[in-house]
Specification:
With 277 residues, this protein is of the alpha+beta class. Helix content is 63%, strand content 14%. It has a four-stranded antiparallel sheet with strand order 2-1-4-3. It has a two-stranded antiparallel ribbon with strand order 5-6. Helix 1 packs antiparallel against helix 2 and helix 1 packs antiparallel against helix 3.
Amino acid sequence: MDINSFPKGKISYKVTTNILLALSIILFISVTIITLFMNSFYDNQKKYLEDKLSRLFVSLVAPNLERYDYFGVEKSCQEFLSEEIVNYVYIFDNNGFLINQSYYEKINTSSNLIEEIKIDIENSHNFKIGEAKIGYNFKNYYFSLLKVKIILFVNILLIIAFSNLLILYILNKNLSFPLFQLLNFINQISKGDYSSKLKFNSDDEIGQISKAFNEMLDKLNYNISLIEGIVKSLPSAIIFIDGQFKVNLWNIAAEKLFKKMLLMFYKKIFLKLILIF
């Protein structure tokens, strides 16, 4: 395989994609759990606030309603409307007649942001003397929850983007580039260049592979030198030719034989020239 055809960064991108996918799944599960927790927390807070305000309202209205002080009932309703989430209040007597109708602002009562509850109004002897219908507007609560979710989602996207860049940088530095250098080194050896060496002195797997390759190359150079010394000292003429008919090695006997053959060739040419002239 030619080193130029090797796709740079392919391993890093693949590993990064796998890590990023796992990270995204973990973050998605975390976000789901956090969202469910937030929804439950807001619902509990909303229920607690509803109960607290409803009890407060009954404690304000019940004494006035028991005395048939409708002016005091209206005043209590107006005070209760000062609460931010209270949208409207209807007061009915024990016979179901509307006594008071107070509202902070006109709004569509069918809106999903309005939650209407009905509570009984009891006197000091725990007898029902009326009924209240209260509309709570939790628009700000829902918007606050939505805002928190959006912020959480944006932060997660930023975390994923930053993690992707960080992982890609680490993998390129510690995996992709060393492997690219290693492949380049192997490609040089396959072309017959045994002079270069890998220069990775780390204690990780890449460093151990580099050390093993360097040791292998030292042994290979030693064996090549040994074979060349043996071949050159043989009395018989030996010539090594590769697949491209290129002479890689010949010994002293082959060199002398070639010189002798070349000298004989020149002599024949010289004699033919003499005969011609």
